[in-house]
Amino acid sequence: MRTALALLLMATPVAAQDRVLTVYAEDYIASEWGPGPAIKEGFEAFCDCTLRFVTGDILPRILMEGANTQADVVFGLNTDVLARARASGLFAPHGQDTSDMSLPIAWDDPTFLPYNWGETAFVYDTTRLENPPASFAELLEAEDIRIVIQDPRSSISGLALLFWVKQVYGDEAGAAWSQLAPKVLTVTRGWSESYGMFTSGEADMVLSYTTSPAYHIAAEDDVTKRAAIFPEGHYFMTEVAGQLAGSDQPELAQAFMDWIVTPEFQQVVPLANWSLPAALPEDQWPQVMRDLPRPDTTLFYSEDEAEALRQPALDEWLRAFN
Amino acid sequence: MAARLQLGHLVAAFLATAILGTLGAVAWSAGGLGALSEWDWRAVRFTLWQAALSATLSALLAVPVARALARRRFRGRGLLVTLLGAPFILPVIVAIMGLIAVFGRNGAVNEALRALGLPEMVIYGWQGVILAHVFLNLPLSVRLILQGWQAIPAERFRLAASLDFAPCDIARHLERPMLRAVLPGVWLAVFLVCLTSFTVALALGGGPRATTVELAIYQAFRFDFDLGRAASLGLVQIGLCVAAALVARRIVVPAAFGAGLDARHGPPAPGGWRLGADALVITLAAGFLLWPMGAVITTGLPRIPALPADVWDAAWRSVVMAVASALLSVGACLALALTIAAGRARWVEAAGMLPLIASPLVLGTGLFILLRGVASPQQMALPVTVAVNAAMALPFGLRALIPAAQALRADYDRLALSLDLRGLARLRLLTLPRLARPLGFAGGLAAALAMGDLGVITLFASDQPTLPLKLYQLMNGYRMADAAAASVLLMILSFGLFWLFDRGGRLGA
């Protein structure tokens, strides 16, 4: 029995087997409704190898596994938690030229490579909210508006909102939160619960992304969902990939980094992830992305600033709601 | 007999080691316990009072419902009792969807209130948390209290009738002693379930005021990667539960009705206004418990055929895992219950209740730390999920199985000994047939709870997602309508598995 099994294993082509790239990805990325299949198919054609997704909470997982991790690449980390990932010392340079990326901010990080981006925004439905607030200030003043947001202690978009408010209001952030609190219908654990409440008509606005309407336009032919664009600016969010220094497939990991910046990846993946391409000139973006209204001002904290501000901003938020 | 006793001890020891050991592993890996912040203590306070209020309301509201169901006979009663049990095994996310569909801003209740010109009810805030917890736990309470009513020997009611007892006399002499014996256990069970609540409190709590300890654990783990704080919070959670268990134990006074014949007659059914009141109570409970589920079904059901193939794959995987969990849980449950019935080790019962109070996140993280040298997390994902789910369902199964195992021992032990019926033969000829009903119930509960569980797998995560995970993936892909369909599928499968096991147990008896 065991011999037969061994023979069977030997009979299968070895080449594809020992060329396996293990990618740790946030859960939503690797689902078939996210960019997972496009990434897998595209890269396997590019590298003549097998890509294996392992999904879940990648940061705690990497930190727990440390140098013993089986990951060759991590995919889907957010800048607001990068400081922790970097401090682990587990990552190797991505080796790409980032001087000319299609990002609203300059990117000179040799370790983490952005592949898509967007900005936080409040999304509303034109059939239900005729006069949406036209600025953050108006949102704070607005009466009879109910919004749903995500908890910054359990959700990355909730954390981004914390930084957004901090950028706009600085030392007055606490007061701004107190003004916003009565308009907050509820705070959910993750983005999906919030968005579900919004689409089922519970809330007038939901904390989401400037790119969310693209899904409704492209996939549902529905143009009633819009992101309210605020002149104060919107908080920038990007997702990055990194290769592990201890990877036993360094060439494949490097190939994955090379592939991320190809037009093929950049044109396809944003449409599956509903976000903007990070390494593609704007005139080559998918049409639906080019048509989206964009804020004039981009707000952003570097990862060190974000790490330093996280706890104080969280305390401010908690105090305003308690 | 001795061999089986050892098995129960072994299972209990294994459980205690696994649960306390994982907590220890997390603390050890962090280099000690971490300090708790001001917000953590607020979370502890909120967790405590919402769990206490939820448990009290669930238990009190369940009394009239259970009494009405105990003393009335009508067509479809059996089906109704089964259906009323459904919310307890509903995946939390589905329950929230249903409650919002009925009680939300756009829900049917508020539509009606608006139409009548009345002020709207608000589901977001502590009241939403309590509403959801009562919705989820009233069924469990009704079921347990109903069993209490049915456990009063029919002879007592007949004696009461011959003494010309009025309903208030029956209440004083028969029903109140029974409730005094049953209610603390019911209260404790609901309290413990609410103590580890996480998603409900966040989604309906309205904001960070409604933070539970479980969320603090999640934050410590997910964002701060502060394992020391996570371990401290896990310890606090266990401490709260143990304290609650001690309080409940002090209140319990055994009802001591004595044995009766196995006749299945409920208490007498008084007529007059009491008949109307019972009908009203049953109608209200049925409306409250079934309406939200109906609302979810009507939105999601039509889209089920259009669900992508991967959802069906995940559904199949979930079913297999749920059945494996159920069998494992029933086996462990049986071993524990037989040992507990032998009455020699109280710690065995305590160990059996431990899974209820362990934080799934701490448990998962601890297992991760302990097993990482042994196998890769991907290999462990499915087996660990099966094992953890089996353990999580144990306390509920035990509640149903312990009394039956005790009765079995009292009634048949001597006979079995005199026939020298031992080992597997005793298991096959005596134990399994006599315990088939509670075993079926325990298995059904375990299968359904495992079906809806999301917890541990996200940590170990692999490339083999379960149905609840798919549900979240659909939502994350903006596909809310498909997610609604997947949640109905999840609900149907959970309930179907419960029904099959429960029914199987009845056929065997």
UniProtKB/TrEMBL annotation, chain A:
Record-linked PANTHER family: THIAMINE-BINDING PERIPLASMIC PROTEIN, THIAMINE-BINDING PERIPLASMIC PROTEIN-RELATED
Location of the protein in the cell: Periplasm
One Gene Ontology CC term in the entry: outer membrane-bounded periplasmic space
GO molecular function: thiamine binding; thiamine pyrophosphate binding
Pfam families attached to this UniProt entry: SBP_bac_8
One GO biological process term: thiamine transport
Family: Belongs to the bacterial solute-binding protein 1 family.
Matches recorded under InterPro entries: SBP, ThiB-like
Name the UniProt record assigns to this protein: Thiamine ABC transporter substrate-binding protein
Keyword annotations from UniProtKB, A to Z: Periplasm, Signal, Transport
Native organism taxonomy: Bacteria, Pseudomonadati, Pseudomonadota, Alphaproteobacteria, Rhodobacterales
Tagged with keyword Ribosomal protein: no
Signal peptide start-end: 1-16
Automatic annotation (TrEMBL), chain B:
Transmembrane segments: 7-28, 48-66, 78-103, 123-146, 181-207, 227-248, 279-299, 319-341, 353-374, 380-402, 439-461, 481-501
UniProt main location, coarse: membrane
Domain ABC transmembrane type-1, first and last residues per copy: 44-248, 315-501
Cellular component GO terms, alphabetical: plasma membrane
Compartment(s): Cell membrane
Membrane topology type: Multi-pass membrane protein
Keywords associated with the record: Cell membrane, Membrane, Transmembrane, Transmembrane helix, Transport
Biological process terms in GO annotation: transmembrane transport
Protein name (database record): Thiamine/thiamine pyrophosphate ABC transporter permease ThiP
